[in-house]
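Hi W.,

Here's what went into the run:
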Amino acid sequence: MENHYGSAARLLTGILSVAVCAGILGAQALAVGTIFNAILGVSTTVGILIGMSIVVLYSSFGGVWAVIQTDMLQFVFLGVFLPVTLIIGLIEVGGPAELVSSVPADHLSFGGTWTIGLFVSTFLAFLLGETLVPPYTQRAFSTPDPTNARKGYVMSGIFAFFFFFVSASIGLVALALYPHISPDQAIPMIVKNILPIGITGLVVAALLAVVMSTASSYLNSIAVVFVKDIYLPFINPNLSASRKVWLERLLSLVVGGAAILFAVSVPSIVDALLYSYALWAPTIIIPLILAVVWGLRSMVAGVSAIVAGGVAAAVWTWVLHEPFGLTGLVVGIVVNVVVFAVGYWVAGGERRPASTTVSEGE
Amino acid sequence: MREVSIYALLLYGVPIVVILVTLWVGYLGFKFYVDEVIKK
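Here's what came out:
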């Protein structure tokens, strides 16, 4: 971002990256609390404290290598035991035919009871809200070359499609068995009430794996982004390697604590995610894509688009309370694009020569 | 009836595919760990 839009844009990107990762981390913290609450009966706050303490501990002291190793184990757990939960749930409901006939018809149609506006807003929020967020970018940079990065993204995208089908179908099973259930409680209730004793423990581990693997990745990214994009360039460029490691550990602890506070103050996991996406999609993502894909350079366009998109999203959401059924995120993205285009045109932006490559960390 | 059998195929088929792919990727991860971390 600095290469294309100047150091102010780098600082803004660093701050917003930390904020969006902390928000998504908060959503994961709430999910951990919900699982503990629904399955073990402890309060959500105690559940959040137990789950997040474990995540903060291994992320802080093991770093990215610990995060990658636990991610791998967690992936196997969730990829095996969530589908097993669906199959057991289907048998409990009485089979696919019984499931289809016992859920409301709008749950099996495209869009369901949602209006087109709500569907498009939510789709854009989840699409752009996590596009190129620091943990995903970190994984792309961990591959040996762009071909492997592309292959990895495509394969995980295809896998995710099937995996989300499984998760959503477990939601349908929960709805068929407990018609008045809250969406956040769907999977935990299935696990608690219908699984055989031996399988329950493994599925609880799988559920915690889903959440903790995501949480640890975001926690690690927050520490790295803060040190690399805020502390080193703007506060203390001469930090020694050992102090850098300690600063990252300290940050993991502080941010883990902040995420716990955020988790206990938001109404639901989806709300927590949407609040976080509203920080990222209307600010960073469009200038970042324009820089990476087309090599556009303009300090005026980049910085003004980031600021204007963020302010527009905030005003539309919290001051105007989202009139016309449009979310602040969508309005913010439109303002972001328009301001970038005007700024680029007025300030006479440039394009990076085709041969120039973007190096790691930029 | 046809619609229901499509649901049956999806609701049982997709989880089985997910389990198989996960086990395969898990095996690749384990192989990588043994080759690149334990043996080196």
